[in-house]
């Protein structure tokens, strides 16, 4: 949001150990420049559809003007899939978190074009957002699609799916809610499976990897990869009673 600093990039009773300490950034400063349309949308629409970062939990009913299930998407990129999911699920409210201004501008533009009243955007580090702006057991769903795989072994510590963050996310998911991750890197998929399976608040909805749920759109990039024989792995974990 204009004036919102871009920092480094989800009920249980416990917070993960070490949550109060500075974390390793899961992203780096890159990803191009604004197009004219993205910049215009960013400047015009952030005051309407953007939520500034704050150090206390938001009230979703106050934000959206109604009481509805709340879903969080982390790292929405250019926002095409986020907008399509929100449009297909009007009875659910969505908050998308992204650090890169062009992506924020792109999604804000889609919100206006599609008339999406159930979608808001936060431009900030997802870890900070989940820790401070999302109350325990507030989320019906968390979507984490194609996070940066940090493929070099020495950079694996920067991957977002790691035990401390998954414990934090799990504490923000209500009973009956779910966490859906997807990646096109097999090594990261195996790490995700191990980390999610080890989280005691979550239970796998499949034997290991899940079929792509119909609500997650197949992107053009993903379709091209599948045609070339590349894999995509989905993981859907629920929070049981």
Written description of the protein model:
The longest helix has 14 residues, at 36-49. The chain has helices at 36-49, 60-64, 80-88, 101-114, 126-133, 163-172, 186-198, 220-227; strands spanning 70-74, 93-97, 119-122, 139-145, 173-183, 203-204, 233-238. The chain has one domain (36-238): 3-Layer(aba) Sandwich (Rossmann fold). The protein is of the alpha/beta class. It is built from eight helices and seven strands. It has a seven-stranded mixed sheet, sandwiched between helices.
Query: Helix amount, in percent?
Result: 25-40%
Largest sheet: 7 strands, mixed
- Any idea of the CATH class? Alpha Beta
Under CATH, the homologous superfamily reads: Vaccinia Virus protein VP39
| The CATH architecture | 3-Layer(aba) Sandwich
Report mean pLDDT, rounded to a whole number: 89
Task: Write down how many β-strands occur, each being a DSSP E stretch of 2 or more residues.
Answer: 7
Please give the domain count.
1
Structural class determined from secondary elements: alpha/beta
The CATH topology comes to: Rossmann fold
Q: What's the end-to-end separation, in Å?
A: 37 Å
Topology as H/E string?
HHEHEHEHEHEHEHE
Round the Cα radius of gyration to an integer and report it.
17 Å
Which band does the percent of strand residues land in?
15-25%
Low-confidence stretches: 2-21
Inertia-based shape: globular
Number of continuous helical runs: 8
